[in-house]
Amino acid sequence: MEQFLASNNQITGNLPESLNNLPKLRQFDMSSNALSGSLPGFTESFATLQELVLSEQKDGSHFSGSIPENIWRSLLLEKLNLNGNRLTGSIPSLVGKLAILEEFDLSNNILTGSIPSEFGMLA
């Protein structure tokens, strides 16, 4: 599977760890649902992932915890939108590896720390 698009629904619960087993996944959008829990690692999926959108969960639901390190290692990622969750931690220096990132939205979370200097490496 290359695309999984299910935004603007009433899907509830956590994202299953089995999402880690989608080696051809390019686009994953489950924004505006009622999902919660922590973000899966997307271990295998991040080899090809270009777009990850998990923003604006409804009905008081939010993703929480830290952003998985694999997200910062996805060299093909063009769009990362995790807006409107309760994600914690900081933006690591690995953000500089997202060389072709075009859209980056982490607003309305509980992130701390400073913006790493490697952020300036994004074109």
What does this structure look like?
The chain has strands spanning 3-5, 12-13, 27-29, 34-35, 51-53, 64-66, 79-81, 86-89, 103-105, 110-111. The mean pLDDT is 91. It is built from no helices and ten strands. Helices cover 0% and strands 23% of the residues.
Short descriptors:
mainly beta; 5-stranded parallel beta sheet; 3-stranded parallel beta sheet; 10 strands
Largest sheet at a glance? 5 strands, parallel
Class from helix and strand fractions: mainly beta
Radius of gyration: 14 Å
Termini distance? 29 Å
What would the average pLDDT be, to the nearest integer?
91
Strand content: 15-25%
String of helices and strands: EEEEEEEEEE
Low-pLDDT residue intervals, each spanning 5 or more residues: none
Main-sheet strand order equals 1-3-5-7-9
Number of distinct beta strands: 10
Count of DSSP-assigned helices: 0
Query: Helix share of residues?
Result: under 10%
Broad shape: globular
